[in-house]
TrEMBL record:
Source taxon at top rank: Eukaryota
This protein's encoding gene: SLCO2B1
Domain Kazal-like: 472-532
Compartments (UniProt record): Cell membrane
Annotated region (Disordered), positions in chain: 1-20, 673-698
Protein name in UniProt: Solute carrier organic anion transporter family member
Length: 698
């Protein structure tokens, strides 16, 4: 509200010496009355908040393995924090500066920290992770339980008791764990609602008008590092074993390359929640209003003084123009929101929404951003899992690649787009051309990704081997004398034939050999009746033949992310310059709401469902389908990259239509200018040289 800014500015009376008589509030030796300290606190809070929001995406495949979730369910879980956020974000425009904004930001941060603690709770209420389901519960987990043993020496399996225990206890615990994570994600979205909007408006209200853009730029620059830090944290935490706080007595013999490895996914949530809780403390000490910042930053003043010499005395300076524009903007907003009750605001909102959506440029820009955001949401959620499956890399390494390559590239793209718009003084037409070129280049870089991969290696009993008849049996005939458990999963690889078996039992192996090394121990199985020469076979899955392609793949993905991010600032400028002045703030709010509803919420579910359709072998848990153990790599690559290609094509089509509409508008404006100038020229000829037409300046 303009009155509050006026009061804050009038609280200081200028003296002839050019200095100011300080208000008693200014004499308080408190950093909480400094807008610079608020910017520092808010940068750290948004950094921690984005880190906790993005951490689930870095550990999505680990959570799937730990709790037996499909990709569709994990995608829904990742998208669920947008539900609480979208439901409440509209009311932020209504409350504005009526509330104690710093305190409300603090409450939101406390809710985010509690949501992080709640996300880690399933680890503590669940039983310890058992990667070997065949050994008895009271014995250490080892590799011997899944060896081939003659059927006569082992009693027949009795599935009835296990099924009854599944239906009564295990399944109820599974539902409780999944429910807790969904509630935590909803709370995470609710707590995030006040943090960014109230923080930005608080800075804009009490910072000096010339300093405000610089402060917001610093805030966004620090904030953008949050997702990269989330992937980096995920890369570090997933190197640790999930039950690091309750390790079995004999230790574990798994390595992070083993497909059964589950990292300490819960530890990252605890660290992020602690960071958010610490960052929330200062907000309970900031005042509702602080004195308006009186001084410009020194280096900024020198730059403006140098540029002032080039401005004629009759012209308004750019800072005065921006001050007047911001005053007009505040006046326009003051006439809309503060005078309405909540009920009136809810009634008016649909009409303003429809009026804004009727603007063709606004609608097409939002649709293009919906396509881009859908691509980003799917990539951010499932790219780590895709890299794990397609190139046989560990979850930790996949996260480190994304955090060190893709995220910085996207940040550089956003910054470069803003610099180009600023330095080249791009108007709407040139902004549209820049967006079109960025989207086209990004689309072309997607084409090689379809061919960077290789098919799934042979898996005995699952993928048909050369020479097999159609529809092979579940187990090869050579393992029939063995009593192989149906639900066991302890993969071994025959390195010579490059064939993988689900367990040593299915390979017909009767003995094991452990080779101890300095840094790790390698287990081999021998006397295998299903393997040529009797083995040996090594524990763990077979490595992908395409693992060397992971770095070129990530280079193309990162370059595409930079080019897609290049369109971020120009597309925003198309919105800000295309809608009415009084609708700008609400248009940006509507834009973010539509992006959440149409992109960030459905896209992870769409990508997860597409990934599930490529599964060739599902694990079973209590009679239900749990996590997928093997995918058809060619199908996985074509459908995952194909979805990216589809969304990029949609974005390109929207920018092409925007450019066509802008060209049509330029032609119409040119026609109007020609008509308006021809009339005054005829009047000039008729009236003589003594009279000047009023419109001749057009």
């Amino acid at each position: 509200m303009p009155d509050k800014d006026t009061k804050a500015m009038m609280s200081v009376e200028d003296t002839p010496g050019g200095k100011a008589c300080p208000n008693p509030q200014d004499l308080r030796p408190s950093v909480f009355y400094s807008i610079k300290f608020f910017i520092l606190c808010h940068s750290l809070l948004q950094l921690a908040q984005l880190m906790i929001s993005g951490y689930l995406k870095s550990s999505i495949s680990t959570v799937e393995k730990r709790f037996g979730l499909s990709s569709q369910t994990s995608g829904l879980l990742a998208a669920f924090n947008e539900v609480g956020n979208t439901a409440l974000i509209v009311f932020v425009s209504y409350f504005g500066s009526r509330v104690h904004r710093p305190r409300l930001i603090g409450y939101g941060a406390v809710i985010v920290a509690l949501a992080g603690l709640l996300m880690s709770l399933p680890h503590f209420i669940s039983e310890p992770y058992r990667y070997d389901h065949t050994s008895p519960v009271d014995m250490p987990q080892d590799y011997e339980a899944s060896l081939c043993q003659p059927t006569t020496l082992v009693p027949a399996p009795t599935p009835a008791p296990s099924n009854s225990s599944c239906s009564s206890n295990t399944e109820a615990q599974h539902l409780a764990v999944v429910g807790i994570m969904f509630v935590a994600q909803t709370l995470l979205g609710v707590g995030s609602v006040p943090i960014q909007p109230f923080g930005i408006s608080y800075i804009d209200d009490f910072a000096h008008n010339s300093n405000s853009p610089l402060y917001l730029g610093i805030l966004f620059a620090v904030t953008m590092m949050g997702p990269g830090m989330a992937y980096g944290l995920g890369g570090l935490m997933l190197r640790l074993y999930v039950d690091i706080d309750r390790m079995p007595e004999g230790g574990i013999r798994l390595t992070s390359k083993d497909p059964r490895w589950v990292g300490a996914w819960w530890l990252g949530f605890l660290i992020s929640a602690a960071a958010v809780a610490l960052a929330a403390i200062p907000y309970f000490f900031f005042p509702k209003e602080m004195p308006k910042e009186k001084h410009e930053l020194r280096f900024r003043r020198r730059v403006l003084a140098a540029s002032a010499s080039t401005v004629s005395k009759g012209e308004d300076s750019p800072s005065e123009k921006s001050l007047g524009a911001s005053q007009e903007k505040h006046d326009g907003l003051a006439q809309i929101a503060p005078d309405l009750t909540v009920i009136q605001f809810i009634k008016v909102f649909p009409r303003v929404l429809l009026r804004t959506l009727r603007h063709p440029i606004f609608l097409l820009v939002v649709l293009s951003q919906v396509c881009t955001s859908s691509m980003v949401a799917g990539m951010a959620t499932f790219l780590p899992k895709f890299l794990e499956r397609q190139f046989s890399v560990t979850a930790s390494y996949a996260n480190l690649l994304i955090g060190s390559l893709t995220i910085p590239s996207a940040i550089m793209g956003i910054v470069l787009g803003g610099v180009l718009v600023k330095r080249l003084h791009l108007g709407p037409m040139r902004c549209g051309i820049l967006c079109l070129l960025g989207a086209l280049s990004c689309l072309l870089l997607t084409l090689p990704l379809f061919f960077m991969g290789c098919p799934t290696h042979q898996i005995a009993g699952i993928t048909p081997q050369p020479g097999d008849l159609p529809g092979p049996e579940l187990f090869p005939a050579c393992s029939e004398p063995c009593s192989c458990p149906l639900d066991d999963f302890n993969p071994v690889c025959d390195p010579r034939a490059h064939v993988e078996y689900l367990t040593p039992c299915q390979a017909g192996c009767t003995s094991q050999v452990a080779q101890e090394a300095l840094d790790k121990s390698q287990v081999f199985y021998t006397n295998c009746s299903c393997v040529a020469g009797g083995g040996p076979v090594s524990a763990g899955s077979c490595d992908s033949a395409c693992s060397h392609l992971v770095l070129p793949f990530m280079f193309l993905v990162s370059l595409g992310a930079a080019l897609a991010s290049l369109t971020h600032t120009p597309s925003f400028m198309l919105i800000l310059r295309g809608v009415k002045k009084e609708d700008k703030t609400l248009a940006v709010g509507i834009q973010f709401m539509l992006l959440r509803v149409l992109a960030w919420m459905p896209s992870p579910v769409i990508h997860g469902s597409a990934i599930d359709t490529t599964c060739v072998h599902w694990a079973q848990s209590c009679g239900r389908r749990a996590v997928c153990r093997y995918y058809d790599h060619n199908l996985l690559r074509n459908r995952f990259v194909g979805l990216q290609f589809f969304f990029k094509t949609g974005s390109l089509a929207c920018f092409a239509l925007i450019l066509a509409i802008l060209r049509q508008q330029v032609k119409e404006e040119g026609t109007q200018v020609t008509v308006s100038t021809s009339g005054p020229q005829q009047q000039l000829l008729a009236s003589g040289p003594g009279k000047k037409p009023e419109e001749s300046s057009v």
